[in-house]
Amino acid sequence: MTSNMAINSLGIPSQAEIGQRLKKELPEIVHELSSSTLGDEGFAHVNPAPIPTRESAAAVIEVMRRIMFPGYFDRVRLEELNLQYRLGQDVTTLFHMLAQQVSIAVRHDCLRYGQPCASCDEMGYFAALEVVRQLPRLRRLLAGDVRAAYAGDPASRSYDEIIFCYPGLYAITIYRLAHVLYHLEVPLLPRLMTEYAHSHTGIEIHPGAHIEESFFIDHGTGVVIGQTSHIGARVRIYQGVTLGALSLSPEEVDSLRSAKRHPTIEDDVIIYSGATILGGNTVVGARSVIGGNTWITQSVPPDTMVLLKAPEHIYTGKN
Fold first, then answer.
1. pLDDT tens digits, residue range 275-310?
2. Three-class SS state of 205
3. What span, in angstroms and rounded, lies between the C-alpha atoms of 241 and 173?
4. Rounded to whole angstroms, how far apart are CA atoms 35 and 29?
5. 3 falls within a domain
6. pLDDT reported for residue 253
7. Euclidean distance between CA atoms 148 and 176, whole angstroms
8. Alpha carbons within 13 A on the beta-carbon side of 13
9. Over the stretch 133-158, which tens digit does the pLDDT of each residue have?
């Protein structure tokens, strides 16, 4: 009772009065919202067809992981007797899921941008078939990534630990599938997939980046790999590494959308935590080591170690 009296003393209207105000003001608020949504702001999305969702991308990812690592993420026990049957089921499921989601993504772009949409379903089936064809190659690549993690991290006890627990491998697994879809020019879905991985791991890999075999991200949080990055074989990077683009003026952005803006990392390079490497013309030569917290915008020759000069530490206290 005391609290109600205190509230009323502030001049707060009663529930009935609030209801009357809502009836009066709500239509005007909704009209203003709908008018601004239908305006020319560049991101109205009222008439176009539906787009792939995060949930559908996540479902594709889970089936993909079961295929890439049989027995690890299955809900039933997998044995030699039922291996081919289960893989057959999962590959068929993946094919139909991808065909549907690709078709939705392509149809959305066609309707949104006024393009003819005569073969969206066929494009979905074609892209899904191409992904299925590449599954054996993707599995070989991921097996190399697992071995690279085990070889590069003395804390790892087994391949099982890496497959189940390492966020770097999770992000790389999703990237490798998204990369195939990206080069098939599937709109939106590849980015949905890699951003799903980003939200779960803190590792951002653009599906357009080119990453060769035996790639290892240790720890991983805060890693950013830009769209036009090229990473060679047997590269190892640590948390907080950025392979990014130099800052652009607004006038330069459109003209450089298809240009190489991110660095090239050659074979057998190690990049320690917090390093930032920027620019499309920047090449880190093979077998180089880039120390932690370095900032690099120029090329580094092969077989080079780049380190920061040791800072001066100041110690205070009784001892």
1. 999 999 999 999 999 999 999 999 999 999 999 998
2. strand
3. 19
4. 10
5. no
6. 66
7. 16
8. 8
9. 999 999 999 999 999 999 999 999 99
Question: Are residues 173 and 262 part of one domain?
Answer: no
Last residue in a domain, options 174, 202, 230: 202
In a domain, 125, yes or no: yes
| CA dist., res. 307 & res. 291, Å (int) | 5
Provide the greatest CA pair distance for the chain. 79
Question: What predicted TM-score, i.e. pTM, was given to this entire model?
Answer: 0.85
Q: Are residues 242 and 186 in the same domain?
A: no
CATH number of the domain where residue 238 is located: 2.160.10.10
Domain count, the chain: 2
What is the domain extent for residue 247?
209-310
What confidence score (pLDDT) does residue 257 get? 72
- Token pair 């073969």: residue: 119
**Residue type at 251 in one-letter notation:** E
Angstrom distance (rounded) from CA 60 to CA 58: 5
- The answer to whether 145 and 139 are in contact (CB under 8 A) is no
SS3 call for 2: helix
- Looking at residue 297, its amino acid is T
Would residue 2 count as lying in a domain? no
Report whether 168 contacts 203 (CB < 8 A): yes
| Residue found under tokens 């791991």 | 201
Q: Which parts of the chain sit beneath pLDDT 70?
A: 1-11, 39-49, 111-118, 249-256
